[in-house]
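FIELD: query
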Amino acid sequence: MAATRIMSIHINKGKTARQCIGDRLDYIMNPKKTDGGILISTYACSPETAADEFMLFRQEYQQNTGRTQDNEIIAYHVRQAFKPDEITPEEANEIGEELASRMTDDQFAYVVATHIDKHHVQ
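FIELD: result
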C-alpha cells in the first residue's frame, strides 16, 4: 500500500509563477529519475510544454473569472511511495495516473512521473 502526501505549490518570493511551476516540473520529470522519461504520463498537456500550458490555463481562468489570489496555490504535487519490491515502476505510474484522473475528474491537465532513483518506487 502506498504512502501518499499532497503538497501545495505556491509562488516563491522573488520568482514568477512560471519559474516556480517550471522548477517543480523539471524536478518531477527529471530523466535520471524517470528512466529517461519513459515513466512520465500526461493528460491534456505535453511534457515538453506543460509549464507553459499550465500558465495558459491559469491566465485563462483569471481572465474568465477576474479572480486573483494572494498566496495563490498554483499546483499540487502528490507523492506516492511504495515499499521496495512492492510494485513495478510501470504499475506505480499506472496507479499515479488513476489517482490523478480521480483527483481532477479529468477536468484539469496533469503530469504523472514515477521516480526509480531510490531503493523504493515513488
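FIELD: remark
Strands lie at 3-10, 40-43, 73-81, 110-113.
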